[in-house]
Amino acid sequence: MKVLKFGGTSVGTPESIKAVKSIVSTQERPCIVVVSALGGITDQLIRTASLAAAGDVSFREILTQIRNRHYDVIDNVGVTEQVAEALKEEISVILDRLESICEGVFLLKVLPSRIQDEIVSFGERMSSRIVSAAIPGSKVCDSLEFIKTKVHEGRVVADKPKTFELIRKALDSNNLGEAIAIVPGFISTDSRSGDISNLGRGGSDYTASLIAAALDAEMLEIWTDVDGFMTADPRIIKTSCLIDQMSYQEAMELCTFGAKVVYSPTLYPVCQKGIPILIKNTFNPSAPGTLICEKAQEGPQLIKGISSIDDISLITLSGTSMVGVVGVDGRIFSRLAKENISAFLVTQSASETSITIGVSRRDSELAAEALNDEFQHEIASGINFPIFVKSNLAAITVVGENMKGHEGVAGKLFSLLGRNGISVVSLAQGAFESNISFVVDRAHLRKALTIIHDGFFLSEHREINLVVCGVGTVGSKLMEQIAAQREYLLKSKNLKINVVGIARSTRALFNPSGIDSDNYREQLDGAAPTSLESLKEQILNMNLFNTVFVDCTASEDVAAIYGELFKKGISVVAANKVAASSEYGNYNHLKAIAQKHGVSFRYETNVGAALPLIGTINDMRDSGDRILKIEAVLSGSINFILNTMSAQIPFSKAVRMAQEQGYTEPDPRIDLSGKDVMRKIVILSREAGYTSSMNDVRTQLFLPENFFTCSIEEFWALLPSLDEQFERQRQALERENKRWRFIATMDEGRLDLSLQSISPDHPFHSLEGSNNIAMITSARYSPYPLIIRGYGAGADVTASGIFSDILKTV
């Protein structure tokens, strides 16, 4: 024999009841079908009772809505007109009784618990009759006659011995024959008084479980509106997947900790009898569902599922009076039980000086008052502290019997959280090793669930969530390269690149699911105006794991938000040189914050575009080498100008060509001033281990000062006046087979920048176009320095360097 239970959504509409009929008609007989009230009716009944007790006449409107809803279901459920009329008469009698009770409550302004229990029982009493009328060959078996309750320690609980005895008499297969028994769930009667009672929220599941256990059923099927247990809440984790099988223990852990698929007490009666439970979807009956049994078939994953409880509080009792004293825990839990407060998480320090208990936020104030009262003498004498309450928290549990005996599960779990800037407030783990429960800041719940789920269930795919700030020349090239490489990286490196934010000076576009790279410009044009503060807040509010902020701007304001991003577990990849070349204290502080929070701060493209200068210097120092001297040509734009000059192309024309071809900024004086090169040599000096700053650079400019103070129009007008001078000097160099190079030098912390003439035997002599070159002399690379050369400018190579830095953040 099977017992099937259908929830409120499964019997909530005429169409869903027809689906129930279709499912039940395929079952072998006899079978037992337990039904809940029509979806939402129990809440309406509770509301009706409350309004009536408060003297609010609007309870009558709700009663009318309840009547009309049931009549509408009857009219459309597919029964004959004659059956429908007879059923309406039967339902009308029940509703008349309900209305009479509510009117009495309204007149007396009193709502005794037994009256409230009777009021909320009407939902299942009506739904069972409607479902029975819709299913041929069925009959209603009233659970008020065989589901019995008693009061135990102030709580209403099932009277199992009496209930099992009566179930066997009422629902024995010999008594049912070929009939289908339709049983109203949730409702019951008191064993002593006979008053109507109930099994509490989720009680219909419990009704079905009691019946299955009493009759030693072969299977209990719970039909609901989801396909079964999922690896995580699908409303939060879109990549969650169905759990095929799980043990009773795993199901209990997940249900107790927030999974709403099954009412947790449902598991106990069938678990004791070893009866499997199958969770199925009424609206997708072909789905395999989730099988809950004594020993589930284990898959490759270490954990089975993740569940959470939102909006909790931690109550902490601490003090020296607890050390070595027997009975303190008993006092705590006895007092909480007296106040009807449930604790779902308990952790105690090994020193016995404190114990922390997790409760729902709504119970926290009462719990604190009760425990302060319980320990008032200890608190007054100073040997205990007053109860400490910490709120705005969320609890998460990771469940799986595969965790037993597997080293490193907890390490992986907390490493995932730590690398993404999430602190654990409290944690607990039982000796069974089948679950790890911990508490985090409520604001981090969604991010934590995503991190854990993807880390354990989608570990074959790593993921980076990018926010790209600045989509000009370099930023747009980066977007093109990401789009071109996305599929390759996913297939060959199991790495998913997800662009979740794009920003420019006045607008920003965000989508946690990813932004289409094909039309992001159109989307950005239509985005709402934004400020830098708003941009930062939106990045933090998305709260995505493995987030990387990519700064393709030259903005000081953008660089100023790096520190806050680091503190929230967000890595930064910067083409922007401002932060790395800023005041040394700020540079050092940013690196320290990034290291403290376990995130990346990468800025390889600050010097030499995609050339591996910074990375190489860091590798040398990490391996114990000491950098003594760096000589470098670090301005691709100036090098292009110097290499382009000839008898046919004067200096002014070479500058114009560099500007037109994008080697310089729109105002080329930014490049010609040498400030960009100053920033670069300062950055290299710092990476080499020296406390350098911009003020330390001794600079010899090759343009008169007035060229930098005039307007851009005046600059272009004045520039040809230098052509004759430059040409004379160029010809003199050419006669000696020498060339100009704008060279930055770091010599054991001393920084210089100047235009120098280079002889043919020097490595810098043959440097072509906009290339950069650096000679690094170290304790190991001496007297023959390490030379790195290649393209040092251009949007494509700079974007590729940024892309490379992004990939190194994983």
Q: What gap, in angstroms, lies between the N and C termini?
A: 54 Å
Give me the Rg, rounded: 37 Å
The major beta sheet can be summarized as: 8 strands, mixed
Task: Extract low-pLDDT stretches.
Answer: none
The residue-averaged pLDDT reads 93
Helix content: 40-55%
| Spatial ordering of strands, largest sheet | 3-6-2-1-9-11-12-10
Total strand count, please?
Answer: 30
Content-based structural category:
alpha/beta
Give a structural overview:
This protein is 41% helix and 21% strand. The protein contains 30 helices and 30 strands. Helix 8 packs parallel to helix 10 (267-273). The longest helix has 28 residues, at 81-108. It starts with a strand and ends with a helix. The mean pLDDT is 93.
Structural key phrases:
single chain; 810 residues; alpha/beta; eight-stranded mixed sheet; 30 helices; 30 strands; 21% strand
Please outline what is shown here.
It contains 30 helices and 30 strands.
Write the layout of secondary structure elements.
Elements: E1 2-6, H1 14-24, E2 31-35, H2 41-53, H3 59-76, H4 81-108, H5 113-134, E3 138-140, E4 148-152, E5 155-158, H6 160-171, H7 173-176, E6 180-184, E7 187-190, E8 196-198, H8 203-214, E9 219-224, E10 245-247, H9 248-256, H10 267-273, E11 277-281, E12 290-293, E13 305-318, H11 328-338, E14 345-348, E15 354-360, H12 361-374, H13 376-381, E16 388-399, H14 409-419, E17 426-429, E18 435-441, H15 445-457, E19 462-469, H16 473-493, E20 495-503, E21 508-510, H17 520-525, H18 532-542, E22 547-551, H19 556-559, H20 562-567, E23 571-574, H21 584-596, E24 601-602, H22 613-622, E25 627-633, H23 636-644, H24 651-660, H25 669-672, H26 675-687, E26 697-699, H27 706-709, H28 712-718, H29 723-735, E27 739-747, E28 750-758, E29 771-778, E30 786-791, H30 795-807
Parallel strand pairs: 1-2, 1-9, 2-6, 3-6, 4-7, 9-11, 10-12, 19-20, 19-22, 22-23, 23-24, 26-28
Antiparallel strand pairs: 4-5, 7-8, 11-12, 13-15, 13-16, 14-15, 16-18, 17-18, 20-21, 25-27, 25-29, 27-28, 29-30
